[in-house]
Amino acid sequence: MNRKELDPDGSPGAAFGQRLRRLRDERGWTQEELAQRMGCSGTHVSAVETGRRSPTPQFASNADKVLGTGGTLERQSRAVRHPALLEGFPEYVAHEVRAAEIRIFELGIVPGLLQTPEYAEAITTGALRRGAITRHQAEERLALLAERQASLERTPAPVVFAVLDESCIRRPVGGSAVMAAQLERIAMFAEMPSTVLQIAPYDLGERRPFDLPVYLLTLPDRTAIAYAESAQRGHLERETTAVVPMLTAYHQLQAESLSQAASVAMINQVGKGTP
User: Which domain holds residue 43?
Assistant: First the structure.
């Protein structure tokens, strides 16, 4: 039987179709058998798996129920309908919401999981004013961010390691009041029992191993995946030969960065306007 080969990095639709096919194959079901359980036609399942038809919210929700995927397919399906999100990011989010460990390195802006609503609104409004996204897409971004932040409250909670370049806390966003609240939010994040926060100071210079944002996940089965992005696109990496060096570099970054206590002290100094 000929099967269309899918490139999950080719488009959000292809990534969704490839994942749906893999989940179906793992259960030994044919397209017709999956369709019967979902209450649709085998032709519909085939069209979604091969990227010829976008998954509707209802289709993805039904697939989650039948496959027992806990809402991750429904969340991933939004990428097919939401081009405002960088390529590869929606699939990353589908893994993030179930990860046991989350490692983040960010520069320039505070990472989404740590943002206050006002800070996130300011960042999104900036993109809207530049014409980079539409108002509807801005609303979608903020809604997805709220869901990602809410997922941190699951039980058991994921362990979150966050290394922020010093530029994240020194770049003013949204005005003094918004920035003050954001710095306070970061300091509070450091006090949570399942988090580790560090600042990578400017004087690391060439010793800082990453020049772009990096996100590393350890899934419940201890599989590690990595996500990195530029201004133009994101890329999800699953190959061990690529992920392990990134994990090693992240651990080196943590060793070179300020301790959590020193990081919080720097954040508080910045909040008070102290150089």
Answer: 8-81
What total of structural domains would you count in the chain?
A: 2
Strands 214-218 and 195-200: unpaired
For 34-66, the pLDDT digits (tens) are: 999 999 999 889 989 988 787 887 898 899 999
Question: Is 29 found in the same domain as 133?
Answer: no
Is residue 47 located within the same domain as residue 183? no
Can you say whether the dihedral through the CA atoms of 186, 174, 269, 184 is positive or negative?
negative
Structure tokens belonging to residue 92: 């990353």
- Same domain, yes or no: 15 and 90: no
| Pair (127, 238) in one structural domain | yes
Residue 87 clears pLDDT 90, i.e. is over it: no
- pTM for the full model? 0.70
Q: SS3 of 106, please?
A: strand
Same domain (yes/no): 181, 208: yes
CA–CA separation, 247 vs 249, rounded Å? 5
Sheet containing strand 234-237, edge to edge, reads: 195-200, 159-165, 101-106, 214-218, 224-229, 234-237
**Are 102 and 74 within one domain?**
no
- Dist CA 84 CA 93 (whole Å): 14
d(CA 162, CA 155) in angstroms, rounded, equals 20
